[in-house]
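Researcher: Next entry in the queue.
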Amino acid sequence: MIKRIIIDIKATMRMFIRNKGAVFWTFAFPVLLILIFGAIFSGAGDATYTLYVQDLDDGIVSDQFIEALESTGVLKIKMIDINVNATSYINDNSVTSFLIIPEDFSERVTASDQSAYVELRQDQTAQSSNIVRSIVGAVVNDFNLKLSNGREFIVVEDAAIVQEDLNFIDYFLPGIIGLTVMTNCVFYMQGVQSRYYSTGIFRKLSTTPFTRLEWLVSRAIWQMVLMFMSVGLIIVVGMVFFDVRLTITVEAVLMIITGSMLFTGLGMMISRFSKDEESANAAASAITFPMMFLSGSFFALESMPGYLQIIAKVIPLTYLNNGLRDTMIYGNAESALFNLAILTVIAVVFMGIGSYISRWTED
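Model: Structure for this entry, 363 residues:
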């Protein structure tokens, strides 16, 4: 009895080891999660947040106030020229936090009977908005305390950057759309190609008039159809259950098409460099899961440690997420087109490589 049990355990172990997908989900996946979340949250205390400041006063007190903001070590101050239109700059650069110091700031602070108001414009849908607001508020309170026993010499006026009826789910949804495009295209394409390789379907197709290019075009078109159906469903669910308000633009449509082509090409490359369907699935999981968490789909990039922000800049999904948010939330066509241009270049490269290395017959 014991001997038979041991034999069965050994057989099961061999089957498990041969199943690359099972090995990945059992061992590699939890390790990846620990490493990714550990890297994100272990550096949370060292995170810095960008605050754009336009000092219209340019006085001694305003300089001291800006120095106090910088001394927190958490805010990265970017000074904006006084001749720049604040509203236009915010829209053109998708700014999430912008502080305006008025012309009479120093005069009002030094006066005994007046309060100086600074305007803090923020995108309330951004994850960092509450953190930046708290830091600015703490600096203001400390400033007031030092000036005169806590009297409100300086007051923060809050203003919204985006539409007031937008909330966090509106900011979150474009990231979910980008994530859906990536996972569906990568896993579908690597799964189909790996299965066709292993079952000999490609070998049979090579004997028909149906060319490899025609097959690739048909799969790409089918993927785009699926993506628009999936994205449409996501938006409908968001509108029905969460009152989501997003703007569907030409740029957003082009990004979904380009993203579908890009990640379809990535799926082709993964399947070609994998020995079987299970290995391809494990490889696709190992590649897509880090991108999922490091591209801004779930966490704001600026809340991550600096080295993770650098890694995020080489992840294609980052540009898809940023581009979708730029056009669907901020209405920033210029920034959206910039991200679209980057996606297009990567898509051409990935599709070119994927098409070149894909074969219907064994090498």
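Model: The radius of gyration is 26 Å.
Researcher: Noted, moving on.
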